[in-house]
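quick one, 334 residues, struct below
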Amino acid sequence: MFVLKKPTAALSNEYKNKILQGLIGRVKSGRESNNAHIELSTDAKNILLPNWNTDNPNASILEQLLISEPVDLKNLNDNLMEQLDALIAPNKPGKNLLLKIFNYEGVFNDSSKSRAFWLAKKIERKTCVYCNRQYIFTVEKGNGNNKQERIARPVFDHWFPKDKYPLLSISLFNLIPSCTICNSSVKGSVDLSFEDHLHPYVDEGRMLDFTFKASKTIDKKPKWTVKINRQKDSKEDKTIKAFRLDEIYAMHGELEVLDIMYFKESYPDGYLSDLFDNLLKDCTRKMTKYDVYRMLFGTEMDSDKFLDRPFGKLKHDLLKEILNIDTKTSKQIQ
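---
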């Protein structure tokens, strides 16, 4: 939840090689397709692609827009847009024209879907980066060599909304694999910031300071609720609010939370821990604590992997308290 492994240098280079030449061609043309009356000015082309009208244009700025890391990417965007706004604002093609040139829909929603599926497989995220509630597998039939064999993939959220930041429409570090609900229904075009919100790549190494807690309310009948504890006005707090996770996770109090807490309440104190230990001791094949934990609860004990399954963070927090078993890496629990 809220963290992604940074793309390797090899992936960044491969991504650039797949996208750059088409982008160079669109900047050179500088025109919305089928509309000869709205065109990027020569000065604007020179800003994005110096020497654009020669056989060897300088594509370094476009390369940076494609593969720079988020903080550098935002700084580059702000610098470029300050220059471009003065050139394109009078003609009012503005950001709409830049959206057509950087052309996310054409690059990733192309008729064959090939680039989108390729990138989704390279990033290899199994659950939504924002909510950790849904699998976002990339599913293909056979080798996925054609449109008919490409079945499902995560959607790519633009952490910097492409309508406001058209230059970042196809930036590798601005494409966050997520579920449709988080991307479209919840976040939409909400404008996030490094200062106030968690960025999956910028905050990758940060120990995220929030915890799921379950409690029972007594009304007409007992009901389990779930809350996300965090420091008020922290980056965690503002990110959770931006993605409406308080309201969304509240719906799971009578589902996943109920299952776990009903299991706990149905047996004496210590029973789950004893069961855990006995299964480990009496199994007929060699099993680790990692294996038993996954078999019992359908989630991961390995702290490096509990975001690989839906509700991994939620289950981890509740089970850690119930079982009094701390998470460790898989290497440590062999």
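The first strand starts at residue 139 and ends at 140.
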